[in-house]
Amino acid sequence: MHIYRTHTCGQLRKEQVGENVRLSGWVHRKRDHGNLLFIDLRDHYGITQCVVDTSSAVFDTLEKVRLESVIKIDGKVVKRDDETINAKLPTGEIEVDVSGVEILSAADVLPIQVGEEYENPEELRLKYRYIDLRREKLHQNMVLRSKLVSYFRKKMTELGFLEYQTPILTASSPEGARDFLVPSRLHPGEFYALPQAPQQFKQLLMVAGFDKYFQIAPCFRDEDSRADRSPGEFYQMDFEMSFVTQEEIFAVLEEVLTGAFTEFADGRKVYGTPFPRIPFRESMLKYGTDKPDLRNPLIISDVTEAFVGSGFGIFAGAIEKGAVVRAIPAPGAAEKPRSWFDKLNDWARENGQGGLGYIIFSEEGPKGPIAKNLDADRIQKIQEACGLKAGDAVFFVCGKEKQAAKFSGLVRTNIGEQLDLLEKDCFKLCLIVDFPMFELNEETNQVEFSHNPFSMPQGGLEALNTKDPLDILAYQYDVVCNGIEITSGAIRNHEPEIMYKAFAIAGYGPEVVEQKFGGMLNAFKFGAPPHGGAAPGVDRIVMMLADEPNIREVILFPLNQQAQDLMMQAPAGVSEKQLRELHIQIKLPPKLAEKKEA
Question: What is the pTM for the complete model shown?
Answer without folding.
Answer: 0.92
